Amino acid sequence: MRVSGLNWQGLMEQLQEALPYCEVTDHTLAYFKYPRRSVKVNLPVKMDDGQVRVFTGYRAVHSTARGPSIGGVRFREGLSRHECEVLAAIMTLKAAVADLPLGGAKGGVDVDPASLSAHELEGLTRRYTTELVELIGPNEDILAPDVGTDSQNMAWIFDAFNEGRGTSISGMVVGKPIALGGSYGTKDARGQSAAMVTARALEQDGGVQNARVAVFGYGDVGAKAAQLLRQQGALIVAASDRDGAVYASGGLDLDALAAHREQTGSVAGFGTGLAIKPEELLELDVDALILAFDFGTVNAGNAHAVRARYLVEATNRAVLPEAERYLHAKGIHVLPDLVASIGGVVVNYVEWVQSHTNFFWTEGEIEKVVEQHINRALDEVLALMNEHGIEMRTAAYTLALSRIASATEMRGVYP
């Protein structure tokens, strides 16, 4: 699924709604409207057949007002510089909501990673790193996994960076394998925050017990959110991925579904549920719809069919602004990415701190730290919601802009 609509205009329009609730001057907001740096790189890679293919890569750094930038590297066909710039700005906001000393960045390569062999994928990852080696680092810009990349890509980035610099440091990349200084909880944190935010909303509106939940994008994030909500008594009635979707009115057997995914790589063909089309999942009458696929899942073209009471952005910008306005008018609430997927940036921050200090926490300690950060951010956003009577996204933007503006004003503007 791919739609247009990820743009500065939509983001700025939503930010404008937060301005009455925070003290942000025009010249401070001007800093937010433009990325600090945005680069395009050409990436020649020798393919397995001996031919050289040139790919296009990008890296956008939005802000370093509160600290070095951090953000994912996505390998996705059709990736554009503009997409990276908007997502980098959202990362700046997300880090500010979490009150982390970081700014936002995003980058990647216009490529379908499934079309490459493992050898070609490694070559492309290393070439991308080499082209950016003078711009990234633990105190400058920190890379992380995103759509189409994983811990193996981060391991190649780790090695290529240190080979290029003649160093042996690890803090320029997070989401690494544990053996290379990675952190526990990397795969679980975004699902953890999505589940926590969903549960908090449902508790105020009928309770979690027997609440009907559907998950669009049943990968690591969606599966973790589903698992945690099921433990609290929710019924996970539907799940989808790129290959298909499955529905069971009485709730899916998540253990059996996990075994099926392990064997086949997909939820498609799961025998104890009804096969449906992924787009049909978006139309189900459920209490919460968790969106864990990619940006633009719910847009102007399909928002009219959504019947869930809550949409949960477990990934960045899953609901586009024009769709959100329509849903709000229907009384459907969006639990935004700035809160619902905040666990990802928190666990990346934890790994970055561990790399700096060379001191590593246990899995249980990390899970507790991540939970504390999520709860604190959620409490602060909910307090602003209640104080001003505004939607959660506007409250999150209010909190983020206040912190970014404060840092920008204190650092000052020089000619």
Distinctive features:
17% strand; alpha/beta; 415 residues; Rossmann fold; 2 domains
* Overall number of structural domains: 2
Name the CATH superfamily assignment of the largest domain. Answer: NAD(P)-binding Rossmann-like Domain
Order of helices and strands: HHEEEHEHEHHEHEEHEHEEHEHHHH
Q: Can you count the beta strands? A: 12
Low-confidence stretches: none
Strand content: 15-25%
CATH C-level class of the largest domain is: Alpha Beta
Which structural class should the secondary elements be placed in?
alpha/beta
Q: Describe the strand arrangement of the main beta sheet, using strand numbers.
A: 9-8-7-6-10-11-12
Our measurement of the CA-to-CA distance between the termini, rounded to an integer number of angstroms, reads 45 Å
Major β-sheet, in short? 7 strands, mixed
**Rg estimate, integer Å:** 21 Å
CATH architecture heading of the largest domain: 3-Layer(aba) Sandwich
Question: What can be said about this structure in brief?
Answer:
The chain is α/β, with parallel strands linked by helices. Helices cover 44% and strands 17% of the residues.
Structure in words:
This is Glutamate dehydrogenase. It comes from Deinococcus piscis. Belongs to the Glu/Leu/Phe/Val dehydrogenases family. With 415 residues, this protein is an alpha/beta fold. The protein folds into two domains: 34-173, Leucine Dehydrogenase, chain A, domain 1 (Rossmann fold), CATH 3.40.50; 189-340, Rossmann fold. It has helices spanning 8-18, 26-32, 81-97, 118-132, 151-165, 189-203, 220-231, 254-264, 278-281, 321-329, 337-340, 342-357, 363-388, 392-411, and strands spanning 37-46, 52-61, 69-75, 103-109, 141-145, 212-216, 235-241, 244-247, 274-276, 288-291, 310-313, 333-335. The protein has a seven-stranded mixed beta sheet with strand order 9-8-7-6-10-11-12, with helices on both faces. α1 crosses α14 and α6 (189-203) packs across α7 (220-231). It is globular and about 55 Å long. The model has no long low-confidence stretch (mean pLDDT 93).
